[in-house]
Write a structure and sequence with these properties.
By secondary structure, this protein is α/β, with parallel strands linked by helices. It has 3 domains: 328 residues, Alpha-Beta Barrel (TIM Barrel), CATH 3.20.20.80; 228 residues, Rossmann fold; 54 residues, Immunoglobulin-like (Sandwich), CATH 2.60.40. 30% of the residues lie in helices and 18% in strands. Strands 5-4-3-2-1-9-8-7-6 form a 9-stranded parallel β-sheet. α16 links the parallel β13 and β14. α6 packs parallel to α9, α7 crosses α9 and α15 packs across α18. It is globular and about 80 Å long. The two termini are 31 Å apart.
């Protein structure tokens, strides 16, 4: 059963006729007269959904066991009367001062042994038994008080778990780590085998001897580091589960979630693992002002969020109306950029658009962070654009519940991200996201949608599968990827993939161990490039970061010009997993410089009904684009529509077959898009042109 078919998820989305709209509301920061003004402004903006109470514990429980709910009662009653639904927070994201004063042992400890004190937020360890007792306590009190409140539509559990600090090294964390290891492995002997502790005299006689990977004289055991990453993700998820267990008990009819931070900057939590515990996926995303292609990173984040959601609709829980406050230089968004950003998330699967925050604070660390109601009030560009966005979202009601169409998958694995960037590797320049982002960008620019999928997930729906830097992979996941090629997909595997198993043990017999048979190659030795070094390729391109000594198994067959024949999606599947019809790998490009002159840099092998490509280096932008064009041609994948440059294209489709094309013009000139139908925002027939900086959402004929 998909998440959208589950009862809690249905309970959320049935509250909204269209795309939900609102933000993080902090009424405790404002007097009553401002709160009353807020209600009128929310009506003007078209707000339907708010997160409330995220950092309010110290006001809800000013002293242990003494509660003050008067202000929250009033706020929820007023919002309900205005027809606004609420995601009510558990208020656990920042322990109140009285709790820290009484129990300083709840504070987090770094790998260096530094205790992180209060005065900010997120100052607790998820493994602290004391903190869990208090956190589940306030959660139960809130659930019991508001379980029947008509405004309550969703539980917002804690806030941005893993933000600021995601790994915890105190004594209580160490004990929890040992318990986790005992559950995972069963015996200390199994831990020793998994970690390869025969190296450097690290063999453990009991679980009690194990510590977290704290600061040490030199590099730490990679198996220990990888397992601690797994544990740290689990520890925060286990804390989330403890709070949700209370909510499930008291309010089984109300769905629950927490706001993830799925982006190209957040690697500490395995969100694919987390997804099973969230009734609906919610995500926070902020642009980096210094990024000249921030719209591409936004698309990456939104696509990743949709992948975590399994393709189901999700909530954009936070983004900004304009500038943030935490970057070195916080530039405001340009006119129209807020609308483009918001609808780009909707285009990629969001059925709710929310901001941090509703009203811009006048005090505190985030007073210069933009909001829906800015310091300047209603007579501002930001407010006018907030109202404009609310109006546009109302007109997009028919889009709600539809799913993004994609025939391209990029395999994404948080554990491979962690493991590939551990120390003592062939090159510190190999970064997990580099190729993923490069391929995603190239497809983005071509108007081709991409799904991010876990290596163990079904790949049956995809004609093109990209496997980038999948350094560690299980036998089962490697077999899943190979089966996609046999079934009929075009599969590309990149360098530094399949090198080790899930324990970070090298797969012996030649690289890339897990994919040797699929690709028909064998790598003798890595040749990482020095900083700034480049190599020329036989196809005219250049390569950087990485090269390697590749052998084609069964002899070298160099093809100067390969004719790619477009295939019909899927094949008949008769040869899936069998390798029937497989041949010798063709060499499509070689390195041209000593000591790798003539060594394959790009290969292609027919496998069953599909093909398996191997990329042995990091090509320049133009070369990678040319490679993407060849892969798209072979796999039969085409753009959403033809358009001028600078237009972001995505298609969402409902179960009844009705489809919607989002055309977002990021350029400063008008652009043509070849799609026909009614344009929902304007309510008129689409004329084939999207104005500079504008967005068109076309209900296709």
């Amino acid at each position: 059963m998909s998440r959208k078919e589950s009862l809690p998820s249905i309970a959320l989305w049935r509250h909204f006729d269209g795309i939900a709209y609102g933000g993080d509301y902090n009424p405790e920061q404002w007097p009553v007269d401002v709160r009353l003004e807020d209600l009128d402004l929310m009506k003007e903006a078209g707000v339907t959904f708010l997160s409330v109470g995220i950092f309010s514990w110290a006001l809800l429980e000013p002293r242990e066991g003494e509660y003050d709910f008067r202000w929250l009662d009033e706020v929820l009653d007023n919002l309900s009367a205005a027809g606004i639904k609420v995601a009510l927070a558990t208020a656990t994201a920042a322990p109140p001062p009285w709790l820290v004063h009484k129990h300083p042992e709840i504070l987090p400890v770094t790998a260096e042994g530094t205790v992180l004190g209060p005065g900010s937020r997120r100052h607790y360890s998820p493994s602290s038994a004391v903190y869990r007792r208090y956190a589940t306590g306030i959660t139960r009190v809130l659930a019991e008080r508001y379980k029947e409140h008509p405004a309550l539509a969703l539980w917002h559990v804690d806030n941005e778990l893993g933000c600021h600090v995601s790994d915890f090294y105190g004594d209580e964390d160490a004990a929890a780590f040992r318990r986790w290891l005992e559950r995972r492995y069963g015996t200390i002997e199994a831990v020793n085998r998994a970690w390869g502790t025969a190296f450097w005299s690290q063999n453990y006689a009991s679980f009690e001897e194990i510590l977290p990977p704290r600061v040490a004289p030199f590099t730490l055991n990679p198996g220990q580091q990888l397992d601690f990453k797994r544990f740290s993700s689990w520890a925060l998820m286990d804390f989330y589960r403890a709070l949700v267990a209370v909510l499930r008990e008291v309010t089984p009819h109300i769905p629950a979630t927490t706001n993830l931070m799925a982006s190209s900057a957040t690697k500490s939590l395995d969100y694919f693992d987390w997804a099973q515990d969230l009734d609906v996926i919610a995500n926070d995303h902020y642009l980096v002002a210094a990024d000249p292609e921030s719209q591409v990173e936004l698309a990456f984040s939104a696509d990743l969020t949709r992948g975590i959601a399994g393709g189901d609709p999700w909530i954009l829980m936070e983004h900004s109306t304009s500038a943030v406050n935490w970057q070195p230089r916080n530039r405001p968004k340009l006119p129209g950029e807020m609308l483009r950003n918001s609808l780009a998330h909707v285009a990629r699967g969001a059925d709710a658009v929310m901001f941090f925050q509703w009203r811009q604070s006048y005090a505190g660390s985030e007073k210069f962070h933009s909001a829906m109601v800015p310091h300047g009030g209603r007579d501002t560009r930001v407010w006018r654009e907030v109202v404009e966005l609310g109006s546009a979202l109302k007109r997009l009601a028919p889009v709600r519940g539809s799913r993004v169409e994609s025939r391209v998958a990029i395999v994404f694995d948080y554990e491979a991200w962690w493991a590939s960037e551990l120390d003592s590797h062939p090159s510190q320049d190999v970064k997990y996201l580099d190729l993923l982002r490069s391929f995603h960008r190239s497809l983005f620019l071509r108007g081709v949608s991409v799904d991010f999928v876990h290596p163990s997930a079904s790949l049956d729906a995809y004609d093109l599968v990209l496997v980038c830097t999948l350094y560690n992979v299980s036998d089962e996941s490697a077999g899943n990827i190979a089966a996609a090629a046999s079934r009929g997909a075009t599969v590309l595997v990149s360098y530094f993939s399949g090198i080790v198993d899930e324990h970070d043990h090298v797969r012996l017999g030649g690289y890339p161990g897990a994919f040797r048979d699929l690709l028909g190659i064998k790598i003798e030795e890595f040749h990482p490039l020095l900083a700034g070094e480049q190599l020329k390729l036989s196809d005219g391109g250049t390569a950087s970061i990485w090269s390697e000594h590749v052998h084609v198994v069964g002899g070298v067959h160099i093809v100067e010009h390969v004719h790619i024949v477009e295939r019909v999606h899927g094949g008949d599947g008769d040869d899936a997993g069998s390798g029937a019809g497989s041949g010798t790998a063709e060499v499509l490009a070689t390195f041209t410089e000593y000591p790798l002159d003539g060594v394959p840099a790009l290969t292609r092998r027919e496998v069953g009904n599909g093909t398996a490509w191997y990329l042995a280096t990091c090509p320049d932008v133009d070369s990678l684009g040319a490679l993407v064009d060849r892969l798209l041609s072979e796999s039969g994948v085409s753009p959403v529509a033809a358009s001028d440059q600078g237009v972001e294209l995505t298609r969402r489709r409902r179960e009844d077959g009705k489809s919607f094309v989002f055309a977002i013009n990021h350029s400063r000139t008008d652009a043509s898009v070849s799609v026909s139908g009614m344009e929902l925002i304007s309510g008129t027939r689409f004329g084939g042109t999207v104005a500079a900086g504008a967005v068109a959402v076309v209900a296709e004929d």
